[in-house]
Each structure stands twice: as C-alpha cells, then as structure tokens.
Amino acid sequence: MRITSSAVSLNVADPTASAEFLKAHYGFTEDMAAEGFVSLSRPDAGFNVIYLKTGLATFKPESAKGHADGLLLVFVVDDIDAEYERVQAEGVAITTPIETEEWGERYFQTADPNGVIIQLVQWMTEPDAATAS
What sequence ranges are listed for the domain VOC (predicted)? Predict the structure, then answer.
C-alpha cells in the first residue's frame, strides 16, 4: 500500500463556520468546497481537515452520522506560549488554559463554532524520554 495523502473528516452542523475558524486562527487554506463540504490544508500539517454537514444523505456509513464528540484536533507547535498569546489577542475563547502534563506535554485548547476542540501542544521533553521512566 502507498498512501498518497491523509485527512481527518469531521461531521458538524456548520462546515463553513468551522472552516472559517481554522482559516482565521490557525492558518489553514481552503482547497475545495461544495454544499455541506469544505476541505482545508496547510503545507506543514501533513493532512487535510474536512468538514461535512451533519445529515448529508451522501455521508457513509449511516451509523457514523452525528457530531465530532470526543475528538481532539491536535497540532504540535514550536512555541506554545506565543501561540497562546496570539489566539487570545485574536479574541479566541480559551476552553482549557495552558497546562503542562507530568510527561512533558504543554498544551491549551480552544473550540471552533461547532464545538470541535482544537488543541495546540508543545513537548517540553521528548515524548519517548517522558514515558521511559
């Protein structure tokens, strides 16, 4: 098998609102859009983020219809404190203020207009070193 690209697809009530949030605050660009569908990317993300409108007749499998509950959209960054200050200055509501886990993960969370949690992370220690003890 050869994977040529990757994406995460999220089922939300308002795909345009979520897409505009990622574009405005996280530097994504729109690759394509249609009624009930928006695909976004950034060259450094390694995957596309796709929003699909909840209830689309073409959404398969039927059992997966619903909201993106429990999902975290996570991006690892170089300077978590600078990103925290930046999104606050842009007026983005912080869902979870900066925390540092004992294993070295420093993060904060925001939520897009559909409630999808976006988490920015900076590793303060290498992930393998943090779990080796």
Answer: 2-123
